[in-house]
UniProtKB/TrEMBL annotation:
It comes from Musca domestica (House fly). This is Tetraspanin. The chain crosses the membrane at residues 35-58, 65-89, 188-213. The gene is LOC101890982. The lineage of its organism: Eukaryota, Metazoa, Ecdysozoa, Arthropoda, Hexapoda. InterPro entries: Tetraspanin/Peripherin, Tetraspanin_animals, Tetraspanin_EC2_sf. It comes from the Eukaryota.
Length: 222
């Protein structure tokens, strides 16, 4: 029963993280969205495997219980591999995000600007590293209104009211690369925490299933 609940929990955690990351999917590579997707699939599989374990325990079938333990062990190995891959990729994460943001700000097409407006408003940031990136990198050399603090946006002209260039009192001063990495790192902590908790439950499930299968066989042989 505990593994059934944990499978559901890991599925929900993966879905929550994926929904958060997808808000900024224009700038993040598939490798960033892969871990929560794997977690969702893993949670579903664990839920199904746990059902098999419950059925095997009810039927007192050593074969089903050992199959349950084996499947749990395979899932555990997959989780471990995904965790190692995510740790390796993490070292290149900031540079990958930075390159994506720089390419996007240089293009500054309609889709790019919609994505920038979304990330700058939600994360309260401006530019890649600094607001000045819009002056040096973008096609029209102009800071978008989404760089402004909400109370200073002049909708009719599409930028900050009476704002000098890069006015510190009116524009967000932090770059989006750092803010986006912080958001992804926060989600990574959630995934790692959930993953470690589930891993301990899986190990316990494997041990108990093998013990129960052995006990059932021993009783039947006597």
């Amino acid at each position: 029963m505990l593994l059934l609940i944990s499978g559901l929990g890991i599925l929900i955690a993966g879905a929550v993280v994926l929904a958060d990351v997808n808000q900024f999917s224009h700038f993040v590579e598939g490798k960033v969205t892969a871990p929560p997707i794997v977690l969702i699939v893993t949670g579903l599989i664990i839920f199904l495997i746990a059902s098999l374990g419950c059925f095997g325990a009810i039927k007192e079938s050593p074969t089903l219980l050992l199959a349950y333990a084996l499947l749990l062990a395979i899932i555990f190995i997959i989780e471990l591999a995904v965790g190692i891959a995510a740790s390796v990729f993490k070292s290149d994460l900031e540079m990958a995000i930075k390159n994506s943001l720089q390419d996007s700000i240089k293009r500054s097409n309609k889709d790019d600007m919609m994505a920038w407006d979304n990330i700058q408003r939600k994360l309260m940031c401006c530019g890649v590293d600094y607001p000045s990136d819009w002056r040096t990198m973008s096609a029209n050399k102009t800071l978008p209104a989404s760089c402004c603090h909400p109370e200073y946006i002049e909708e009719s002209v599409g930028h900050c009211t009476e704002s000098p260039a890069l006015g510190k009192d009116k524009y967000f001063q932090e770059g989006c690369v750092g803010k986006l990495k912080q958001r992804i790192d926060k989600n990574a902590v959630i995934l790692i925490g959930v993953g470690i908790g589930i891993a301990f439950i899986q190990i316990l499930g494997i041990v108990l299933a093998c013990y129960l299968a052995s006990t059932i066989r021993h009783e039947r042989n006597h």
